[in-house]
């Protein structure tokens, strides 16, 4: 008998709960509880004897899950939410059962080959050739770090350093870029953006200093959805032999929508990009596709060696060579499965649907008295403000609707002013339903 015996009935219970959750989605009224609320229930749940499967799973379904934010719900329009489709979610559950080691080809050949099909689709959308490739990492932060480390190695091989290395990016760059700069111990040169939140090539050119080794362009800024002038920044990168990285963690999913794709013109000349399937590509957490136009640039900077790794077949594609990691799950496979199942056209349509929903919500806001649209939609982000509500009243309104499950719409700050922000990544979000909640802001 196995050391850890677990009855089939308990496996059934977990699988049947999983099935129900995939088919019915999260409960929109769920949300974080305080430590004081959780501790009496979860504190002490690890004991010498164990509490048994029933009790432990009940803690999961009755306490843990209800105390989490239902990002996957169509009314969840804050931060950059997530909208995993049932195919990707179901497959993720199956993947979890396989325990595939996808750090190197020896461990995960089939899984890696399939993940690479999904990366190929993304590289094709960018117009990149056969040399392109990369890896799925846990999130955009790690993807940005891995790309920018590759950028610095690449630059170091081409030119001696001229002072303290620096990354040039927009003031609107995601917080992860500042975090990456701290980890890499390099400076950030932050370029002011225009009224729409875009970094122009001209502003970047003015801010450029010879110590810069990479430009990070927003391909969908988190706060505003703005896409920087990628083509102009590619010119600047070419003029000074700089690496151009696109942070498309949120926005680059829209490459799949032919109607939106032109905003990314110039991407074919970038050196790397990231896009998170767990944001706008309908895959579950956690997954970020990191793609290099020339995969060898990633491999030159990354990869680990050691006597215990010498047995690994180096002639094949080893995902651990392309980012800062070794062991990894095949986290790109749920995207692969859903793409293989539905086809890429369905993805383009779903993205276009969210863009259309954002447009319809923006139009609805324009028709409302006492509500001012501030910016957007850019990609699928809209900023707006109720003109007669104080900041405190905005907070209160957001909290009431979050708690009721009607809408997760939280404030952000734009140009020093508190505004509401919507970011739509769920193809099932209904503009009419959202507008019916937003109307309460206009006190009609
Ligand atoms: C533009 C952008 N870059 C990077 C990130 C970081 O991604 P992650 O949260 O997956 O680390 C985010 C997250 O929202 C983002 O919007």
Automatic annotation (TrEMBL):
Can you provide one Gene Ontology molecular function annotated for this UniProt record?
Answer: transaminase activity
Annotated keywords: Aminotransferase, Decarboxylase, Lyase, Pyridoxal phosphate, Transferase
The Swiss-Prot or TrEMBL record lists the needed cofactor(s) as: pyridoxal 5'-phosphate
Q: Supply the InterPro entries for this chain.
A: Aromatic_deC, PyrdxlP-dep_de-COase, PyrdxlP-dep_Trfase, PyrdxlP-dep_Trfase_major, PyrdxlP-dep_Trfase_small
Pfam families in the record, alphabetically?
Pyridoxal_deC (PF00282)
Superkingdom of origin: Bacteria
Family membership noted in the UniProt record: Belongs to the group II decarboxylase family.
> What protein name is recorded for this chain?
Aminotransferase class V-fold PLP-dependent enzyme
Organism of origin? Thalassococcus lentus
